[in-house]
């Protein structure tokens, strides 16, 4: 065992990027504990997975691996107290590195060595101008460690020359990446060539390093940097974007990456690379835009239904006390469902390992590959879901139309990969299935192709079955309706098994509420049987719906003063009202589905009457508790943010749509006796839906273009255009259109009013995603109906 292996204490690594996770693997392979720190939870998760992958692929199965722990920077100081070495691996930005080094010097013990992993800045350059408590320890390293650093410095300078000459040769057209890599590997007998290595590092990172060299040295040629910039502008960043010098979306060009995985050794840690290859051939800027747009639009709405103001399982609950703090964690307005699914899957694995006493077991290669496939499918589902909005960011009709092929390709690719998600039950797979169900079928997909694979309804039903399977599998933490600790960031500290179990219950409950939302919506819109909840017989005794009622009672009592004396409409107050109303909205959807079931299946009159009175009572409760506050918010809504406007619009549209669907079912059943009692309600609902659509047409949402969010790089679009549920908007338009035609023919609507309402509905359909088959079909039917109406006017005598 060498001198480095004999050192006691832990190694702390700041930054879980490509270099940080490699160092974490290397130091943990020596048997000592390693602590990895990063601001981003996703980076920490990827870092842990990367180390697990390399350990699983290790040829030395008897190796004593060191413990690997992770945390955010706010928990760094306690971890430094027993560290003999701390290494910064933050991006190649001098000011950032200096800030990190200064903080480490202030917090780390006197004898802790502070090192930088920079490939372009020397220690003297980083320390220049810093007033440190002990600047010498940045250089006070054991002899063997200094030797490694000297060798690394020598290697870095040689690598910089090779890299620059490679880029220069490519810029001048001397050879292709494949030819240069082949010569390099043949002559020097290396496993990877310079182009392959740069793809692994990331071409944007390589450009940052080259820019630093150019700033600090004279005579550095500009051609390599120009060549890199042209690649980056095209979205070619290397493996992380799916394309760099090689195209990693094609099986043939995956060979460099696969070779690195297949022949990686434990000791040659520098040649390992991140083992994730994107599934879809889209540029990095488009992929990033699709993800951030999904978060900015869909999760901003749906996430508010899972927060402490809406989800009945965590309603009004504060988080646990933070370590060394007397303050409670604030209430969460919005929570990412995708993050919840990832966290729940990870914790389920952790809890199952604890149950089996195999906490330190290293994942097998098959398990690692399974996790990679699940993550790829979820990422692909998010991209496919958001692709509908991509045409909004282009100005010309030709550019908008050109996105159809990409949207079709994403839909086809996701649909194919869903077969793998079906066979890999977990919460991420469940969410991938839900997202696919909400993706509009693109235009250009034939009916034969549409019928030749999984349908939206099948995807929802499969996802619900997975929820049932997962909850049954985790018997020890099965939801029982009791209040539990709300969501908190697992990476902020190292929780005990009991705390993990409690927080797991909380997260699982929020995911269950999300699944119940889809289950209820599906049972109403598809007229399908509910899988997570009882139908006509038994729903009232279920804890979920009883909790919704209890939370509404609590909210009503808490906000009574607002209804009596008025309120200040702040962002927080408005979002609290909207989120609480969204939970009751789901109960109204349930009531509508139950009444629809009673009418459809021909139940006894007393059963139908009970379902009807329950629905009417739910509507009355909304009108008493929520409507006055929502109307107050509406009067002040132009002073609120675009996300608050979007949430208000979605709540009001969905709530009134559920009642309109219920009334439509009553009309189909020809229950005129019930319809007469709902005549005022129907008039009110139709008016509210029209007002919602007008609101959605007249209020704008600022959407960044994929090229980047700069001052002149935003597009303003109506809220209707980015509605995450266009199928609900189409349903509302169709129901309103049918009702308007009946009223016009009966004389209840004047000609000018009828034409004005037609115009609103046609504008709405024009702004929904035109790459959607259902939207196109609804628009064509509406245009035909409008044309027939105009033709009928031409045939009337006396009409000019």
Automatic annotation (TrEMBL):
Residues 11-131 form the 3-hydroxyacyl-CoA dehydrogenase NAD binding domain. Residues 157-248 form the 3-hydroxyacyl-CoA dehydrogenase C-terminal domain. GO terms for molecular function: NAD+ binding; oxidoreductase activity, acting on the CH-OH group of donors, NAD or NADP as acceptor. It holds the Pfam family 3HCDH. InterPro entries: 3-OHacyl-CoA_DH_NAD-bd, 3HC_DH_C, 6-PGluconate_DH-like_C_sf, 6PGD_dom2, NAD(P)-bd_dom_sf. GO terms for biological process: fatty acid metabolic process. Keywords: Oxidoreductase. This is 3-hydroxyacyl-CoA dehydrogenase C-terminal domain-containing protein.
């Amino acid at each position: 065992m060498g001198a480095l292996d004999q050192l006691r204490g832990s190694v702390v690594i700041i930054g879980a990027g490509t270099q940080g996770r490699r160092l974490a693997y290397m130091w943990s392979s020596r048997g000592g504990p390693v602590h990895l720190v990063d601001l981003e939870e996703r980076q920490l998760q990827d870092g842990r997975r990367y180390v697990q992958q390399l350990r699983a692929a290790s040829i030395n199965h008897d190796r004593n691996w060191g413990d690997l722990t992770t945390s955010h920077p706010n928990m760094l100081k306690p971890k430094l107290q027993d560290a003999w070495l701390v290494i910064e691996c933050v991006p190649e930005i001098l000011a950032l590195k200096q800030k990190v080094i200064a903080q480490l010097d202030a917090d780390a013990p006197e004898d802790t060595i502070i090192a930088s992993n920079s490939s372009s800045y020397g220690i003297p350059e980083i320390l220049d101008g810093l007033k440190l408590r002990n600047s010498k320890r940045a250089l006070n390293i054991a002899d063997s460690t200094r030797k490694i650093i000297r060798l690394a410095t020598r290697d870095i300078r040689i690598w910089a020359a090779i890299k620059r000459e490679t880029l220069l040769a490519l810029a001048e057209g001397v050879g292709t990446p494949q030819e240069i890599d082949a010569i390099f590997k043949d002559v020097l007998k290396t496993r990877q060539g310079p182009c392959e290595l740069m793809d692994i590092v990331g071409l944007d990172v390589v450009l940052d390093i080259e820019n630093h060299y150019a700033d600090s040295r004279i005579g550095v040629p500009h051609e390599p940097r120009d060549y890199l910039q042209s690649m980056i502008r095209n979205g070619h960043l290397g493996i992380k974007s799916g394309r760099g010098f090689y195209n990693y979306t094609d099986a043939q060009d995956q060979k460099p990456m696969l070779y690195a995985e297949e022949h990686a050794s434990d000791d040659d840690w520098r040649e390992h690379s991140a083992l994730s290859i994107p599934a879809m051939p889209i540029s990095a800027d488009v992929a990033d835009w699709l993800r951030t747009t999904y978060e900015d639009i869909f999760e901003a709405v749906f996430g508010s239904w899972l927060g402490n103001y809406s989800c009945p399982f965590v309603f009004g609950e504060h988080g646990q006390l933070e370590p060394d703090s007397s303050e409670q964690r604030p209430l969460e307005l919005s929570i990412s469902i995708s993050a919840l699914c990832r966290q729940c899957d990870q914790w389920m694995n952790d809890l199952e390992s604890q149950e089996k006493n195999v906490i330190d077991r290293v994942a097998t290669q098959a398990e690692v590959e399974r996790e990679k496939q699940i993550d790829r499918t979820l990422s692909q589902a998010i991209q496919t879901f958001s692709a509908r909005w991509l045409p909004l960011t282009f100005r010309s009709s030709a550019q908008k139309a050109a996105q159809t092929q990409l949207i079709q390709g994403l839909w086809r690719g996701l649909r194919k990969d869903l077969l793998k998600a079906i066979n890999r039950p977990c919460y991420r797979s469940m969410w991938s299935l839900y997202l696919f169900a909400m993706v509009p079928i693109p235009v250009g997909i034939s009916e034969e192709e549409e019928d030749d694979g999984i349908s939206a309804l099948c995807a929802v039903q499969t996802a619900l079955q997975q929820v049932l399977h997962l909850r049954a599998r985790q018997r020890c933490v099965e939801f029982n309706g009791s209040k539990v600790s709300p969501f908190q960031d697992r990476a902020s500290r190292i929780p005990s098994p009991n705390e993990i179990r409690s927080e797991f219950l909380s997260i699982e409950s929020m995911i269950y509420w999300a699944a119940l939302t889809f289950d209820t919506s599906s049972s109403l819109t598809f007229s399908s049987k509910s899988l997570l909840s009882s139908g006509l017989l038994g729903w009232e005794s279920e804890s979920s719906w009883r909790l919704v009622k209890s939370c509404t009672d609590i909210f009503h009592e808490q906000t009574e003063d607002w209804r009596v004396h008025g309120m200040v409409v702040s962002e927080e107050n408005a979002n609290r009202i909207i989120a609480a109303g969204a939970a009751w909205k789901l109960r109204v959807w349930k009531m509508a589905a139950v009444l629809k079931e009673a009418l459809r299946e021909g139940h006894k009159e007393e059963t139908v009457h009970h379902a009807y009175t329950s629905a009417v009572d739910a509507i009355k409760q909304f009108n008493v508790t929520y409507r006055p506050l929502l109307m107050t918010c509406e009067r002040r809504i132009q002073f609120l943010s675009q996300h608050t406007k979007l949430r208000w619009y979605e709540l009001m549209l969905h709530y009134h749509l559920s009642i309109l669907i219920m009334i439509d079912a009553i009309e189909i059943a020809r229950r005129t006796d019930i319809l007469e009692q709902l005549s005022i309600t129907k008039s009110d609902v139709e008016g509210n839906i029209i007002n919602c659509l007008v609101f959605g047409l007249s209020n704008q949402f600022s959407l960044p273009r994929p090229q980047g969010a700069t001052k002149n790089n935003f597009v303003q679009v109506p809220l209707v255009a980015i509605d995450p549920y266009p199928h609900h908007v189409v349903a509302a338009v169709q129901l309103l259109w049918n009702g308007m035609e009946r009223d016009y023919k009966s004389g209840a609507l004047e000609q000018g009013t009828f034409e004005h309402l037609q115009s609103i509905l046609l504008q709405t359909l024009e702004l929904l995603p035109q790459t959607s088959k259902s939207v196109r079909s609804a628009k064509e039917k509406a245009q035909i109906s409008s044309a027939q109406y105009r033709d009928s006017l031409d045939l009337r005598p006396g009409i000019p």
